[in-house]
Amino acid sequence: MTASTEILNVPSDVQDLLFRQARTANTFSDEPVTDEQIQAIYDLVKWAPTSMNTQPLRVLVLRTDEARRRLLPHMAEGNRAKTETAPLTVVLAADTEFHENLPELFPHFPGAKDIFAPDDAARAETAKLNSLLQIGYFIIGIRAAGLAAGPMTGFDNAGIDKEFFADKPFKSLVVINVGKPGENPWFDRLPRLAFDQVVETL
Predict the structure, then answer these.
(1) Which of 93, 117, 99 is nearest to 165 (CA)?
(2) How many CA atoms lie within 13 A of 18 on its CB side?
(3) How many angstroms separate the CA atoms of 125 and 7, rounded?
(4) CA–CA distance from 156 to each of 10, 64, 74, 160, 174 (Å)?
(5) Is the pTM of this model over 0.90?
(6) Tens digit of pLDDT at every position of the chain (202 positions)
(7) Cα dihedral 98→51→40→185 (10° resolution)
(8) What is the C-alpha separation between 182 and 173, in angstroms, rounded?
């Protein structure tokens, strides 16, 4: 155990589960992912912060063969096989009309909704940024449930939006395969940048 491991406020085995030993899975077993697991993941990660508590992330769970058939043509060719065989896939999207919920989510500032309402561009940027934050939390939540996540950005966003969100103000950002790892699920572990390469103190 390293000194930095001991400084952190969660046990080293939890650190390993969430980060050091967690890997992006490329194959999955046929063990199902339950609705209860997905709800538990969301009920955990919903507490993580977003700007003005906007919470713009929207989650589409694709479980049926029909839903998978609708998704696959929009995935990059290299992502299709693993998406077809994963027990469950989620499409994570940003709700560009998140401001409609601000009277409930940010009640101490009654004018919050009105700030965003007239500015489509600012609203879209806020939705994207904060949804991406929530996607990071969601991946950690998947790992916390003892499952593997296979996040992908190789897909036709416009095609997915037309296929699944034609009647909603949602913009797809990331597709994640979810499940227990299958046979030979991992690529070789890739390097990470060192502390001194990333962190500057002024």
Answers:
(1) 93
(2) 12
(3) 36
(4) 39, 20, 5, 6, 11
(5) yes
(6) 666 778 999 999 999 999 999 999 999 999 999 999 999 999 999 999 999 999 999 999 999 999 999 999 999 999 999 999 999 999 999 999 999 999 999 999 999 999 999 999 999 999 999 999 999 999 999 999 999 999 999 999 999 999 999 999 999 999 999 999 999 898 888 999 999 999 999 9
(7) 100
(8) 25
